[in-house]
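Can't attach files on this board, so I'm pasting raw text. These are the components:
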Amino acid sequence: MLCILVPALTPAGRGQSASAAAGLEIKGVFHVIGAPELPRGRKCDLALSDKEAVFTSGAKVRLRLPFTSIQRAIVGSGSRDRLGAAIGVGMLSGIGEIAVLTQKKQADSVTIDYTAPSGANLRMVLQMDRPFGGACAEWLKRAGVKVEQAATTREPAATGATGSAPAPENETKP
Amino acid sequence: MMTFGALALGAAAYPIVTVDQFEVKADAKAPPEIGVKLTEDVMKKLTGSKKYTSVLRSGEKPADADAKVARIAGTIVSYSAGSRAMRYAVGFGAGKSKIIVHVQFIDAASGKVLLESDIENTFSGNFSMVGGDSSQVTDGLAKKILALANKNFL
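---
Top answer:
Structure tokens for the assembled complex are below.
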């Protein structure tokens, strides 16, 4: 379990409600794709305050995303290949990687539609260990962001089926 | 590849292309990252072709306000991730991933649909590491979208 839920209460906020002065920090958030500032397919840390989401990698702040720039967030479930484990097992056993490849890492998926400073409409997809997707969604909702549940969510089968699809607004978005 | 309502665009060239975020139809059973990856791949292919003066994301404004702008929008209507283990262990098309996308080319000024088409692509994992990730199916699809754009807009 790489994610750590840390209610970062400041001295002033100690004892107050979480929405008033607390922050939410989720470590090991997997950036699947979407934000140009974040490396694709890598883990980063996500800190949520009452005004913005801050993505850091190491000591470096990669992206500050004000909640006002977020149009919506879609919460569902996702999965990804255990490629590193498969390669490791394969090196040790010779054929064991096939068994590992049939398994998927299950995670909560959070898709965020937002507007970049350039005006571009972007969509980023994040995965985080369960149940931190729900915690993240709850935080965003309290901050005034429109949060939706993924339209269809299914448990991936061992054969490689994957996660969820966002709720469609229209068949083709104008 | 099925094409509907193809129009003879004549000499009308669209030097600027805007790419909308590809949506995922609810019953397509595709994870959201597939739509995002397809959008990124189409942007990359269009930019890499160096045939368009500007390739923009949805929401970005072209520098030349009078230039003709074509918008590319699409919906993933069907997706099958296949099986990476099968692609790796068996090969020869076993466990291939498959995607079908309904794509539209739209005149940004008038909103008129210039061309729409259902495009399909499969990914068998050939020459990929450990069978290749299922999302790589979007790469070949983006090439097909680029070919369609080049054929009709240049």
